[in-house]
Each structure stands twice: as structure tokens, then as C-alpha cells.
Design goal:
about 30% helix
């Protein structure tokens, strides 16, 4: 962070403050949340979590790994994903769906697709140590508050249990916030 711009330093500090508060809710105090070699937060043993921030918003989720194997959270401004980016972040079916929507709804849903994938990437990375491309998974909207992530036959995700994976979202105040968790494998499962 020594060479980061002040805005980025502020976002980093806000994320760490939220992480301390979240960990305190799990009775974990005085833990220095370090950054791993891939810029991921290094949570205490037995804890999983995720941090997100965008202009005007910061959030953290944490849980014990006995309850949840992995967590991911992401927040994006509703207008963050411009149409010129759709080819880079969507697969054909997602793009076809977006193109059928009215322009304002398409902008919100493009941000939702991007955010859902980001949440999933953050969730799976500590478990698989694999970097994913936006084309490795697809997002479909299940309801007004939930989405489904499906692997597009990517062997990198074979080690994750219980796919496809369901996440939740909220769109409010020009902000999309998504979250997803991966359950621990059942005892004795391969």
C-alpha cells in the first residue's frame, strides 16, 4: 500500500476496519489481517471471509469454516459495467439475455453478472487456488434476490462441492451487492 493513491489507501483501511469488526463478532480480537501472495486477505485459522469496496461502500463477510468452506462478497455501482465490456465479462447466453432487456435494466443486470462472478471468484480462490476467467462460469438469475453460478465444464472447479452454486444479491441506491458461499464437503464425501 506504500505506493497506492490516497483513495485506495482509504478503501483498504475501511475494509480492514470492517474485517476487525466482523472478526470481533466471532470473538476474534487483535488479529492482524495480512495480505497473501495473490493479494488475498489471510484470515485466521478456521475462518473464511471476503472483503469488498467500491465508491462509497465497504463490506465484509466472515464465517467459521465448520459452517461455510468459502465466502465471497462483491459490490459494484449499477453503472460500472459499460456495454463495451460485455464481451469480456459475459458468455453468449448472458449477453443474449442482456441485449433483450431495456437499456437501464441491462446496465443493472450487467453489473449484477459481473458482481456475481467476482463474488464467486473470491469464494472459490482460497479453496482451489485457481484464477478463473469470466468465461469459466455463467450466471443466471433465479429470483429477485438470488442467482446461480454454473461451471462451464471447467476442471479447475471440480474440487468444489455442491455445484451449481447459489448466491444472493440486492440492488439498492445505485449499488449491486452480491454474496455467495460454498458449503463444506459432507463427512466422508470425495
Amino acid at each position: 500500500m506504500a505506493r497506492a493513491v490516497p483513495k485506495r489507501v482509504g478503501e483498504f483501511a475501511a475494509g480492514r476496519a470492517c474485517a476487525r469488526a466482523a472478526l470481533a463478532a466471532l470473538n476474534i480480537a487483535d488479529f492482524a489481517l495480512c495480505v497473501g501472495p495473490d493479494r488475498e486477505p489471510l484470515w485466521p485459522e478456521g475462518i473464511t471471509g471476503s472483503i469488498t469496496h467500491c465508491a462509497g461502500y465497504c463490506g465484509v463477510v466472515v464465517a467459521r469454516t465448520t459452517c461455510v468452506a468459502g465466502l465471497g462478497v462483491d459490490a459494484e455501482r449499477c453503472d460500472a459495467v459499460q456495454r463495451r465490456l460485455w464481451d469480456r465479462i459475459t458468455v453468449d447466453a448472458e449477453r443474449a439475455w442482456l441485449e433483450q432487456l431495456p437499456e437501464s435494466a441491462a446496465a443493472h443486470m450487467a453489473a449484477l453478472i459481473f458482481s456475481a462472478k467476482e463474488s464467486f471468484f473470491k469464494c472459490q480462490f482460497p479453496l482451489t487456488r485457481n484464477w478463473l476467467n469470466f468465461s469459466d462460469v455463467s450466471v443466471s438469475i433465479e429470483s429477485s434476490q438470488s442467482f446461480i453460478i454454473q461451471s462451464r465444464a471447467d476442471p479447475k472447479l471440480a474440487s468444489l462441492p455442491n455445484g451449481p452454486w447459489r448466491g444472493r444479491f440486492v440492488i439498492a441506491n445505485d449499488l449491486v451487492v452480491t454474496g455467495i458461499g460454498v458449503q463444506p464437503r459432507a463427512a466422508g464425501a470425495l
